[in-house]
Amino acid sequence: MLGAVLFAIGAVGVFTQRNALIIYMCIELMLNAVNLTIIAFSHFLNNMDGHVFVFMVMTVAAAEAAVGLAIIISIFRNKATVSVDDFNLSKG
Amino acid sequence: MFYILGFGAVVSALLMVTNKKPVSAAMSLVVTMFCLAGLFALLNAHLIAALQIIVYAGAIMVLFLFVIMLLNIQEKEGRVAGHIVLLQFVAIAIVGSLLVIMVNQFKMDGSLIASGQEASQFGTTKALGKILFIKYLLPFEIASVLLLAAIVGAVILAKRRIDDSE
């Protein structure tokens, strides 16, 4: 339940915020909500495989944060903004 | 304890989402991470709770704050720096008080855990290590390769930026 609530808050943040940094934080929040749900199931099913999975999710989250922030810095240097409204680099 | 931590996590998450200032949002995210770490500890996942604090509240949030400060300083270079200093004081005060609260909570958690710890090995570092290095050895190695790839990718992205500016 709590995991779902946190995931919903994170998803709302992703869609409502215009600041790329806060969007990254919301993604982290969503990943953590999933972690909480996995840990809760792992606890109630008395099965420790979920802990390994959470470990992997944390690894991926750390990697994603590092690369994402590097991308943000790179874009900021080029465009001098962190608002996603101004990001249209994917246009050919 | 569950309701306190859950309420704290939800409230700070809402604060983070509704906040316009990245630094305040990051601080709220730290509060959320600490609350989630407490919840993990309540769910007998002690190693994951410790990892949560070290990796998220430590490493990732330092990374976030570093980037925020880097971008903000360039963004608001012409303005008065007074409110930034005030913000830093507020952030330090929040983190300090949080640390005190968390230490107290972990003391209480310790008393709670000590009563039921002998019953099972569930959630201990030893049990997780056994699973991680025997049953899930290949995903573990793949995760290390992923981290290496992330490091290389981040360095290349940052390096290309410097080359462009020169």
Structural features, described:
The complex is a heterodimer of chains A (92) and B (166). With 92 residues, chain A is mostly helical. Chain A has a single domain, classed as Helix Hairpins (Orthogonal Bundle), CATH 1.10.287. Chain A has helices at residues 2-16, 20-44, 49-79. In chain A, helix 1 packs antiparallel against helix 2 and helix 2 (20-44) runs antiparallel to helix 3 (49-79). Chain A is elongated. The termini of chain A are far apart. The relative contact order of chain A is 0.14. The mean pLDDT of chain A is 74. Chain B folds into 2 domains: 2-123, Four Helix Bundle (Hemerythrin (Met), subunit A) (Up-down Bundle); 136-166. Helix content of chain B is 86%, strand content 0%. Chain B contains 6 helices and no strands. Chain B has helices spanning 2-18, 22-42, 46-75, 82-116, 125-135, 137-165. Chain B is flat, with a radius of gyration of 20 Å. Residues 76-80 and 114-119 of chain B have low confidence and may be disordered. Chains A and B meet through helix 1, helix 2 and helix 3 of A and helix 1, helix 2, helix 3, helix 5 and helix 6 of B.
Tag the structure with descriptive keywords:
heterodimer; A: about 90 residues; mainly alpha; 3 helices; about 75% helix; about 0% strand; B: about 170 residues; Four Helix Bundle (Hemerythrin (Met), subunit A); flat
Helix content of chain B: over 70%
Mean pLDDT reading of chain A = 74
What is the name of the CATH superfamily of the largest domain in chain B? Answer: NADH-ubiquinone/plastoquinone oxidoreductase chain 6, subunit NuoJ
- CATH topology tier name of the largest domain in chain B: Four Helix Bundle (Hemerythrin (Met), subunit A)
List the chains of the largest interface with their residue counts. A-B, 53 and 61 residues
Overall structural class of chain A, as computed from helix and strand content, comes to: mainly alpha
Largest sheet of chain A: none
Residue fraction in strands of chain B: under 5%
| Count of individual helical segments of chain B | 6
- Number of extended strands of chain A: 0
Low-confidence stretches of chain A: none
| Helix-residue proportion of chain A | over 70%
How would the global form of chain A be characterised? elongated
- Mean pLDDT of chain B, to the nearest integer, reads 74
H-E string of chain B: HHHHHH
Tally of alpha and pi helices of chain A: 3
Order of helices and strands of chain A: HHH
Could you name the CATH class of chain A?
Answer: Mainly Alpha
Number of strands of chain B: 0
Distance between the termini of chain B: 55 Å
